[in-house]
Automatic annotation (TrEMBL):
This is Arginine deiminase family protein. It holds the Pfam family DDAH_eukar.
Amino acid sequence: MTFRRARRRHYAMTAPTFFAVEYAINPWMDMSASVDTHSALNQWETLRQTYKELGHTVETIEPVAGLPDMVYAANGGLLVGGKAVVAKFAYPQRDGESAAYAEWMTRHGYQPVETRHTNEGQGDLLVVGSILLAGHGFRTDRRAHDEIASIVGMPVVSLELVDPRFYHLDTALTVLDDSTVAYYPPAFSDASRAILRDLFPDAIEVADADADVLGLNAVSDGLNVVLPAAATGYADQLRRAGFRPIGVDLSELLKGGGSIKCCTLEVHP
């Protein structure tokens, strides 16, 4: 079995103080479904404490009233190598989040750069070792990939998403370590599946049942993989591959179309 090693990580999270499903901009959102904000806060706090118990640094970002999706901190931008790209959202309902995340970045010593074309941060921009996997097809504009490559100075591999349920890259692919990923093949175009097979011949391919609970919307430190508790088949696959799965229930936040990774903005060194 491959030896896996955890590496301490730096995360930023925004509490779901104002979380609600006030509009529908992805197939998971049902405006008729009731949201228990107290339950959402408790689930989010469990996730935050899980990271802290694993030894990771977790910063909190002040939530803003009127921005119910701000809890999905990963969408706020990309932070890597001292460079910061702030999100430019596809839907006007989320526009205010860009300013909130840019302000947080600035206060932490970054100079956030705006892209001309739509990008939804780490929802579609995932660092794997020395490369950046970039999703497009539903939210992030393919043309933003070239802008982002220039800003952060990293090679970008573009991947086309084709299933609207998996509207961000982080709903269909987990970065497990600097050379290993897991993904749900039907979420990608034929050409993008071929790219993934070529880049990651040892990737874990996840089944429908686990993808259907957003199981791939997970966070890994190289050993410990924090994933939705309902993704039990994926957890078994991870265990067999030498990872340590840790299930967390984020079912209340799933009502907005997000889970573990969506709530976690990683600050990459």
